[in-house]
Design brief:
Strand content: 5-15%
Number of helices: 12
CATH architecture of one domain: Alpha Horseshoe
Helix content: 55-70%
Shape: elongated
Strand order of the largest sheet: 3-2-1-7
Largest sheet: 4 strands, mixed
Order of helices and strands: HHEEEHEHHEEEHHHHHHH
Distance between the termini: 61 Å
Radius of gyration: 23 Å
Structural class: alpha+beta
CATH superfamily of one domain: Tetratricopeptide repeat domain
CATH topology of one domain: Serine Threonine Protein Phosphatase 5, Tetratricopeptide repeat
CATH class of one domain: Mainly Alpha
């Protein structure tokens, strides 16, 4: 899809951090800040303006149609969002019975099928508002008692995140693109997958896997910053990671090393005492031997 120049201009304004743009002529509205999806897509050789639907799954679910977020009031009821969340995690066709078990497990089969049909209808109308015959959807395909979402027609932050992760493995640390891919990955991660639907079993493992991938990317960036002398960048990466995983000792170690390297001896020592208290309260253990040794060395500086 080729977007009108007015929309592209508006989106670029939002991407630069202004968060306000002209949008369609006469709309009077402002475009939302669309975040890191366009930059991540371009790093992978994709043109974001070729996609009409962008979806953010990290943190709370957010759907953008023609660069505008679908407002909460547009969703008829929560199960429509649940259906979208479930389908976004699946690559191919899914038997409808699996959908019933995941989303309408407490209903008898006939009721579950009816609720699924209604939810699918609403979801098609939301994602393809300009389409007259929604049963002919190319985006949400339902045939032979199976359903799937056509990932080739949408941009999803989770999919971009996974592709970037694979690319880092392909190119390796010596490639100049390696760091860019890592930076794009961590920028996409706005919080745990489907943070607004935290208790569904069908997304728990994927949520945990993605968080570990995110932490590995942060760790790689923090190590690179520490070794290259970019100590403030190292501190930033460590603090971001510790917001997600406060008990992750390797990040505490790198954070102390960065503070020490910058001559912030008092901060490094204070961080050690805070960490020691945290570990005692949460796990009943002492800091690792590496962290203790760094503390002693800093104390003797």
């Amino acid at each position: 899809m080729t977007s009108p120049p007015s929309k592209i201009t508006g989106v670029e304004t939002a991407l630069t951090g202004a968060g306000v743009a002209n949008g369609d002529p006469g709309s009077g509205g402002s475009l939302p800040t669309l975040g890191p999806i366009p930059h991540a897509a371009r790093a992978l050789g994709l043109e974001p303006h070729d996609y009409q639907v962008w979806i953010r799954t990290f943190g709370r679910l957010r759907v953008y149609i023609d660069y505008r977020e679908v407002p909460p009031s547009a969703w008829p009821y929560p199960k429509v969002q649940s259906l979208l969340r479930f389908l976004l995690l699946r690559e191919g066709f899914v038997p409808v019975e699996e959908v019933f078990d995941a989303i309408w497990a407490n209903l008898p089969p006939a009721r579950a099928r009816q609720n699924f049909s209604v939810a699918l209808h609403h979801l098609r109308r939301l994602l393809e508002p300009h389409k007259r015959k929604h049963h002919d959807s190319r985006l949400l395909i339902y045939q032979d008692q199976q359903v799937r979402i056509n990932h080739s027609l949408i941009l999803v932050d989770r999919v971009l995140f996974q592709r970037l992760s694979r690319e880092t493995t392909t190119v390796g640390p010596d490639d100049p693109r390696y760091r860019e891919y890592l930076e794009r990955m961590v920028s996409l991660y706005a919080g745990p997958l489907y943070e607004d639907e935290p208790y569904q079993e069908w997304c728990v493992r994927e949520r945990e896997r993605l968080e570990q991938t995110y932490l590995l990317a942060r760790a790689e960036l923090a190590r690179d910053a520490l070794h290259s002398g970019s100590y403030m960048a190292c501190v930033r990466h460590c603090e971001e990671a510790l917001d997600r995983d406060p008990l992750n000792e390797p990040f505490h170690l790198m954070l102390m090393e960065a503070h020490r390297a910058m001559g912030h001896r008092a901060r490094a020592l204070a961080h050690y005492h805070d960490l020691r208290k945290l570990l005692a309260e949460e796990l009943g253990v002492e800091p690792s031997s590496k962290i203790k040794r760094l503390y002693e060395e800093t104390l003797n500086d």
